[in-house]
Amino acid sequence: MATPSTASPAQPRLRDRPATEAAIVSAAERLLLAEGWVGLNVNTLAAEAGVDRKLIYRYFEGVEGVVERLAGRLDLWLGETLAAQPPTRATSYRLFAREMLLAYLGALRSSPLILRLVAWELSQDTPLLRRLEAARSAVLQRWTASRRPDIPMPTGVDVVALNVVFLAAVQHLALAAATRDRFAGVTLDDAGWLRIEAAIDRLLEAYPA
């Protein structure tokens, strides 16, 4: 499945429902990539999709329904992208956590649209955004559970809390790279990402080898 950040140009008004729904969702994708969430409303969406605004309510019950459909596409893409990672060779939880973090970071960096969604979730708190965040977290949790080798969990450390800190860190770095190419004095170019990877290795020493 192609990354969902490559939508096709706006299409003329379509008559059949599946094609019209697809045109509306693709229009939302283009608007979000071009202008962010502030540029997305019923009027801009209808104009970009080339449809009557009434169809957005009829098919999706409003813009939130369109966003939820688009987020579902993103979750599918994220799950497929993570599942395409080579089989794990980790012999310790530390090595497994490293694989997980770097795979998630790579997926985030390759999808500007997911990063737009993450930024929106961090800036507002609504029932919709909570659902979207929970759905994406579930994708990551399912992938982690299906991939984790038969190795014991670390003892003496709060694995869940550490994973939360690590995931939040790589997520924020991916956001920073997408908006300004640097964070806290570190330029997020190839050399900068190598420094980040080395830092992740050092931090992962919190887990037993």
Summarize the structure.
By secondary structure, the protein is mainly α. Helix content is 67%, strand content 2%. Strand 1 and strand 2 form a beta hairpin.
Count the strands? 2
Strand order of the largest sheet: 1-2
Helix content: 55-70%
Mean pLDDT: 87
Tell me about the largest β-sheet: 2 strands, antiparallel
What shape does the CA trace take?
elongated
N-to-C SSE string, H for helix and E for strand: HHHHHHHHEEH
Low-confidence runs of at least 5 consecutive residues:
1-14
Rg over alpha carbons: 19 Å
Number of helices: 9
Q: Gap between N and C termini, in Å?
A: 36 Å
What structural category characterises the helix and strand content?
mainly alpha
Strand content: under 5%
Structure notes:
By secondary structure, the chain is mainly alpha-helical. The chain contains nine helices and two strands, in the order ααααααααββα. Helix 1 (17-35) crosses helix 3 (53-60) and helix 3 crosses helix 4 (63-83).
Topology:
Blueprint: H1 17-35, H2 42-49, H3 53-60, H4 63-83, H5 93-109, H6 112-123, H7 127-147, H8 159-179, E1 182-183, E2 186-187, H9 190-203
Helix pairs in contact: 1-2, 1-3, 1-4, 3-4, 4-7, 5-8, 6-8
